[in-house]
Amino acid sequence: MLESPDPEARSSSCWLLGALGSHEEIISAVLELKPYMWLVSLLRRVQVLRHNSFFLSCFSDKDSSVIARAIYALCQIARWSDGAQAIVDARALDGMLAFLESSSSDIRKWTCELVGRLVEHESTVQAILGLQPCAQLLSVLQDEDAQVTEWATYALSQISLWSDGAQAMGDAKALDRVLILLESQRPRTRERACELVGRLTFHKSTAPTIMELQACGQLVCLLSDDDPRVILRATHALAQFAVWVDCAQMIVDAQALDHVLRLLKCLGQNVRKWACKLVGRLASHEPTVRAISESNVSAVLLSLLCEPAIRSSAIFALGAISGWPDGVAALADIDAFKELQELINSELLDSDTRDQTCRILDNLARYKAVGDWSGRGGKLRIVS
């Protein structure tokens, strides 16, 4: 069917192949048939003929569908490390980025996804980065088709997982253009943009530029987004921001704690987990721990200890808070010792969470022994 003269038959075969390639259980059997060789051969023929004006005049919508679905099939195969390596070995990357200039939005969309899928794997990331794809992906960030924009953002987000990729994005002057996507009218684009910004902030090479562009304020605004997926990604991105002390201060200055208190009480389990991690990272810095201590966040964290899925994240945050005199005093004020003691005596904790809980209890016991020291300064040895 892949060799059929009928474009519709070839298109359907590509779609079926992609559907089969998306299943981990059968990907080995699919790869044994080496269908990617035919798919790559098809794309290479198109690349050779794309500058032929006669060919272009005869190029039908059905032909475009075959190409789009061939790239789609490669996307599905590229989900898996062995499949991604096979695609690279078949020289699928030769001229691949030229498809970003196609008049077909489906071809542009699937090409963006293919770049993102291939760059996910450590074994193939350098092959993709060697193509220097950032500039061409940036060119479709404002595509007339919203799905193309979404998948271009996805590809850039996958590239930014790697330090070399993040540096390449910085070199391509991409960062200011990425932040515009946080204001997109499409929730999916905002979600992917949050993911991208969070990953860029993780790297020392790009974090300063992201800070200078004041992305923090935009992310804090998205904590009140209408779409829960955007809220989750914005919370996750801010947790990445909070690793850096300067970013942590920006988050506090942007009044993020008011939003965080609300998120800790929301229905979304993953949002509450990342809100806990955000609090924990904010509390790990001396300049921002006082803002945490003076808020009601410690009491809310304590109330989350009864929820098994969130307990370890809440303990992480409480542990960071207890590592400072102001923080441990705030925990003592809400009688955290009693609740944590009851928790440690139960069989509900894994070993790591139990160790963290013991450290918090140790800090509280030391505070209780010394008392409320003058100015809550550094006289008490806090265990962090």
From TrEMBL:
Molecular function, one GO term: microtubule binding
GO biological process, one term: cilium movement
GO CC annotation: microtubule cytoskeleton
UniProt cross-references to InterPro entries, sorted A to Z: ARM-like, ARM-type_fold, Armadillo
PANTHER family: SPERM-ASSOCIATED ANTIGEN 6, SPERM-ASSOCIATED ANTIGEN 6 ARMADILLO REPEAT-CONTAINING
Protein's UniProt name: Uncharacterized protein
Organism: Mycena venus
